[in-house]
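Predict the 3D structure for this chain.
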Amino acid sequence: MIRILLIFMLLFPFYGCKEKAPKPQPQVQKVRPSEAKREQAAPQVEEKKVEAETYTYNPSGRKDPFLSIIEATKKEKEVEKKKKVSKPTEAFDVNDIKIIAIAWEGDRYYAMVRLPDGKFFTLKEGMTIGLYGGKVVKIDSNTVVVREFIKDYKGDIKPRDTILKLRKEEGE
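Done. Predicted structure below.
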């Protein structure tokens, strides 16, 4: 058994060696005299060369299909942040704003807030606040409710209420 295996292993490398096949000779077409006369008699028609159409892709105004969806949403948020804001209270996210004090006069409430840049402002109901154009919906003795309209993962615009508390309770 070992002998057969040894012989097989010695002959196997030479199995693929063969003589090279001869190159095929080019074939010459024979033309009949009657066909040659027809070709000479026929008027020569110039062939029109058709130029290949070229297409150039212009990506301006389109999303990059190879960019990660997560990176694309981050870039969109950065663009939204860079938008011109008319008021300083619209330059920061609502969750970054801290309530310092709440005052009232009769049945109207006012809230003093501190922005992340250290500036203080007074809010009243109906004012615009936050990056997404949120409106102050309600101010009471301990909380400020801000309603923002934000796109969800499907692209639908839905309201989101954020409650800012004067004093954060333990455990939050």
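Residues 4 and 67 are 61 Å apart (CA to CA).
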